[in-house]
Amino acid sequence: MEVTEEEQRRRVEEQVEMLLSGQGSEVTGCDVGLEQSKPATLRKNVTYIVCAVIFNDKEEVLMVQEAKQDCYKQWYLPAGRVEVGESLEEALKREVKEEAGFDCEPITLLLIQEQGPQWIRFIFLAKVTGGTLKSLSAADQESLQASWWDRQSALPLRGRDILRLIDYGLKYRQNPWHPVTLPVDLSCRHVLQRLVLVFTNAERQVWVLLIKAPLLHLPTAAAVKTHAVTWAANMVVQDAIPSVYYDQDVNTLGVFSLQHNGRQHGKTDGVCFNSLVALVPDHVQRNEDGEKVEWTGTGRPPPVENPRYVWHEVQKRTLREKLLEKTQNTSIVPMHSLY
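Now predict its structure.
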């Protein structure tokens, strides 16, 4: 039975609502960049790091003393590589147990950092659920010991990058700025971005970019190793509106949810980031001589030039309001490129 276009649009809005609530949606294909991407395979072409930010009742943060030669006796957050066959949460629990002696439970993702699909770090806020603090007498190759740090005392740190992560954890504890977000157990072969790519205007209208065939759907783009993971959104915009691409800012604001399974090596090692991307006209425009010219916006999204794509104006009022709120307040898990 043929599905009408109206029904297809309604289903897309339902899917966006599902992603907004932190759920996932099965990946059935990739629309852009697949020919430049290889299936994600741990230890071969992707490395995933998990990192735990854990506080006690005094807002002291859990730290571990490194046993590795290149950073011997320096201190860092519990962190390490995801191993073959592990989910992200399993890796987090194992690293905290090995390095700090505690059992833990993740509360939410705080932040994602990436240097292209080959290196992605997932920072979790977590809580202790059991075990005992690792002491020097239990030192091994994983760590020398663990300790609670008041963030004031002098402590030789392996890297100052963790100060920002600790700060994110404290701020979230005091005022959670996005919903609890944990990985969704759905398999994916490549590192992908599924895009909720929106254009908004002063009249509070919202459009979402869709691909037409085989049925209307949100674009999915593969990450390529020469660029940040978030570059996938730029590839889609270049594909859809090539002539005005350089007049637009393509801003990946963060992720509603992410999907990872990891059970089958080389087959389910991929990650799908369900991302919110805002297309914003660049208000500084220049003529052919490089001189600034006054920008006059139409309040409507730039017309698509590639017949694969279509803009869909969001009809459901509650969904429109949610997307506007997320776009304006960025109340989702941030994704930072370290390129």
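The first strand starts at residue 47 and ends at 54.
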